[in-house]
Amino acid sequence: MVGFSKEPAGVATGEPKQAATLTVIGRESKVVGEITGSRGVRIEGTVAGKIHLKAPVEVAEGAVVEAEIHATAVRVSGSVSGNITASEVVELLAPAKVTGDITTPALRVVEGAKLEGRVQMKSEPVHKAGPASPDKSPAKA
Hints:
The protein is mainly beta. It has one helix at residues 16-20, and strands at residues 23-25, 30-37, 41-43, 46-53, 57-59, 64-76, 79-81, 84-92, 97-99, 102-104, 107-109, 114-116, 119-121. Strands 1, 2, 3, 4, 5, 6, 7, 8, 9, 10, 11, 12 and 13 form a 13-stranded parallel sheet that branches. Residues 6-19 and 129-141 have low confidence and may be disordered.
């Protein structure tokens, strides 16, 4: 899978260079505000606000996130309250609890994970919502 190794345990990894530059928000840490960037983030503590990354996000077991998440890939083992948008894949691993909607082209849910929300799967890459584009469908006669 793009963005993560196939094993559910461990740190979110992409290419070997990303593993070396992964940002970890530790168990005793609390971040309030907006997290942006192009490096992967593993959340073990608490985050409240917004997360916009051009990289994977991992919410570890025991972590609490109250935020909208936009990333390439999102793996959740902890708790997320907020919508998740991923351009590649979202993985919900036990004992994950997600309260919010998920938009992604690929979704993996492991037994024991909980989701309260809707799922929208798109085959094309998901982009951050912007101004509405005009309808490009042919005009009806």
